[in-house]
Amino acid sequence: MPNAQSTYIITRTDLSVEPQTISVDGLRIGRLAECEIKLNHPTVSRLHAGIRREGGRFYVTDLSPSNSTILNNRLIIFNQPEALGHGDVLLIGPFTLYIGERDNGLEIKVALRAATDAVEVQARDRTSAAANEQAAPAAAAAAAIVSNADAPQEEVVNALRLFWEARSREKAARPSPLHPQKPPPPGKARFNWRPTGDLQRPWPVSIFILTLLVGCPLLAAAYWRPTIYSPRPLSAPHAATSFALTPSSLARQSSGNSCRSCHSLTARMESRCASCHQTEAFAATVTPPHRDNAVGCVACHAEHRGAEFRPRVAALETCAVCHRDGQAYEGRVMKTPHPLTGFGYPVVSGEWVWRGLDEEEWASKPEKVRAVLKQWVVTDERSRLAAQFHALHVHRVRAANGLSANSEGEISCSSCHHSIQPLDRDTPRTTCGQCHNGKLDETTARVLLSADTPNCTSCHVQHIKDRKHWNPSLLIP
Q1: Phi, psi of 224 (to 5 degrees)
Q2: What are 338's strand-pairing partners?
Q3: Which among 26, 179, 233, 313 has the fewest CB atoms less than 10 Å away?
């Protein structure tokens, strides 16, 4: 005759839940959702321990060979029942279970030891297996000391072991998938036998067939019609299958409207952009300020905006869109450039606000311009900036847009400064804008920026290895 179900009153102080009264033949404690007392912690086993009433008394059995269970500061031997009484304390992982007897049932109060270090709990569990082996002789000696009423009888131990073995970890968690789902047919098996398919699940075959029916058309579409997956068409330069000018000055090969030209499972898009845009006349470089703030090709030359979209125009417009007051990028608040100079001569109160060129940028300038810089007397940071700035402007640069020039047509000091003693710093504020504005596509002669719009890239060159930046029309032979 199986034992009647016992009543357990469970109070969880570690959770915001009401006390629960349940009646079961065996109370399971562990990390599984099916356990009556679920203790969610890595140091608690899926089925950690069990409590059952046998022979008029409640017994706790440790069901976890890897994690320990402690009763009244004494380690419980694995699969060895221990009697429970009023006032006993169980320690399982970081949880404390206070045991009390009430109305012929068991009252269990669960508390979380918040001050317990997880490292301490894990260290204790790692030694539980060895401790169980060492505790066996001590438990036998203790059993001789305690009264006969506290020591479980052999038939009680066997009954509890059989009960919990039947509710092992796998069976307590879920039924076996090999369990027959239909009753056997009546009659003798020899004459009334038929094959059954309920011992195997058809899902793997169904999933494989579904993958073939759905996945193969998707892969075929990605190979022969990649535009199906495109949010919007690519721009004309990236959709073209051949170059308008051969060889191209910007890219090594045409994209051919193929997704795989930019998107790959083995390489980042930024690296594929840089590897394609590497020619004798152009190299896709990123300046240190942009590189340090994770601004790459895609941030300025975003694609999939339509066939009429022009990446070069978008890059020029992105400067003004990003660099303005109130705009934020990667958690950094941006500001409108040139707040004090007004897009003019970068000197405020007699001090340079221009930061100058770094070594990589300066090395990209023509050799004759770099040679002129060596003739300047540089004594401090201010004179170094002045030498760089004037070496870039007054040596072999053609005067344009109505600026006054010397006898050879070059920009001279008088092109920007109407007086030298004292130095005129007001006129350059207007002459800077005469040259550093507008943008014309040298190949197609299309207007990229209107003549009255500042051209940020004329001073802040992003691709410093672009040879077209110092084109013949800019310099005097």
Answers
A1: -95, -25
A2: none
A3: 179
Integer Cα distance of 369 and 367 in angstroms:
5
Q: Are 172 and 28 in contact (CB under 8 A)?
A: yes
Confidence band of 470 (pLDDT split at 50, 70, 90): low
| In contact, 241 and 257? CB cutoff 8 Å | yes
- Name which of 446, 417, 416 is nearest 433 in CA terms: 416
Determine the Cα–Cα distance for residues 436 and 416; give it in Å rounded to an integer.
13
Query: What are the CA-CA distances from residue 332 to residues 225, 228, 287, 328, 339 (Å)?
Result: 40, 37, 18, 5, 18
* Interhelix angle 128-145/118-126, nearest 10 degrees: 70
Residues in Cβ contact with 170 at an 8 Å cutoff, skipping those fewer than 6 apart: 176
Q: In the Cβ-directed half-sphere of 438, how many Cα atoms lie within 13 Å?
A: 14
Reported as type and span, the H/E element at residue 438 is: strand 437-440
Q: What is the pLDDT of residue 29?
A: 95
Q: Identify the helix (H) or strand (E) that includes residue 212.
A: helix 203-224
Q: How far apart are CA 82 and CA 164, in angstroms?
A: 14
Helix (H, G, I), strand (E, B) or coil at 94: coil
CATH architecture of 6-173: Sandwich (2.60)
The pair of three-digit structure tokens given for residue 360, joined into one six-digit string: 């990589």
Q: What percent of the chain has pLDDT over 90?
A: 17
DSSP 196: -
Q: Cα–Cα distance between 29 and 48 in angstroms, integer?
A: 6
How buried is 64 (Cβ within 10 angstroms: 0-12 exposed, 13-18 middle, 19+ buried)? Answer: buried
Report the C-alpha gap between 150 and 81 in whole angstroms.
11
Q: What letter represents residue 260's amino acid?
A: R
Output the pTM of the full model.
0.48
Closest CA to 285 of 363, 172, 352: 363
DSSP for 299-334, written as a single string? HHS---S-TT--HHHHHHHHHHHHSSTT-EETTEE-
Burial class of residue 259 in the structure, from the number of CB atoms within 10 Å of its CB (0-12 exposed, 13-18 middle, 19+ buried): middle
Angstrom distance (rounded) from CA 20 to CA 270: 58
Output the pLDDT for position 409. Answer: 84
Write out the two tokens for 10. Answer: 């469970």
| Distance from C-alpha of 199 to C-alpha of 176, rounded to nearest angstrom | 10
Provide the H-helix boundaries in 39-127. Answer: 118-126
Q: What is the pLDDT of residues 82-126, one digit of tens each?
A: 999 999 999 999 999 999 998 889 999 999 986 554 445 455 554
Given this model, what pLDDT does residue 127 score?
Answer: 52
Cα–Cα distance for residue pair 234/216, rounded to 1 Å: 25
